[in-house]
Here is the input.
Amino acid sequence: MNTTFIPNELDRKLIVATQEGLPLTPRPYHDIAEELGVSPDEVITRMQRMKDAGVIRRIAAVPDHYKLGYTLNGMTVWDVPDNMVQELGRKLGAMDPVSHCYQRPRHPPLWNYNLFAMVHGRTQEEVDIHIQAIVELLGEHNRGNEVLFSKRILKKTGLRIKK
Amino acid sequence: MDEIDREIINQLQRGFPICEQPYQEAAESIGISESELIKRIGYLLEDKTLTRFGPMYQIEKAGGAFTLAAMKIPEDEFDKVAEQVNHFPEIAHNYERTHELNMWFVLGTEKPEEINTVISKIEETTGYKVYNMPKLEEYFVGLFFKV
Here is the structure.
């Protein structure tokens, strides 16, 4: 998983051509191929290779979770002992309402949290129930926690590589 | 949004094939026609139910880098600083959050060493410190919103 995939010139062109979205046409990969002046087989092979290498996490639809009613996204942050973070992180990550779970560096004294778990819900009660479940799961290892709710999306364009 | 739209959103969050006629293949398992699926994805993008549809790239797997960073900005300076930060093309998304550290953004660069350069530039431009919080370990990433 840690091996780095080196994108070739065509891969870079494919990323630029598709990073804003896949064409909404019956043969999208063929249309990309035509645009780039390569064969459709080449496009399909390189896309598949980037997917196998994890450069493409998946090809998928990304919903606006606010529009779907998941209006509350709480970034829960936890201070757990560093020697327990891996074990606890895996347990949190396995919970259904947790969409992302990471270990991140502390910045004391302002920021003492080392474990982040993003929790989504349609109501405040739903989020509170999820947070309570995490509190119970962490038990005595929880030395402090906070929930940061999003107030506003300031920007959401996703990754863009330079053309 | 009707039952078919829900089915499309639920299914296409899981994945989409790489083949000659991927819409045809996806449409079959939803039980609609290829043209109907293409039309509906178009509508869902247009009314912003979907923010995007296509490959989700992880540039850190291709030698690039991502990080999460936060800033502590006074209320009366917030909008100005948000604009300055968002102006950097490396900022993928940016949220205002309820905390003393009230601005949280993800930035991505093609080369790992560029992360620190961009952070320094943001600090220079805004005059505020950037708290860099790169992931040290990933335990799970799987966004799925059932509708």
In short: The helical segments of chain B are 3-14, 22-30, 34-46, 78-86, 114-126. The radius of gyration of chain B is 19 Å. The mean pLDDT of chain B is 92. Residues 5 and 40 of chain B are 7 Å apart (CA to CA).
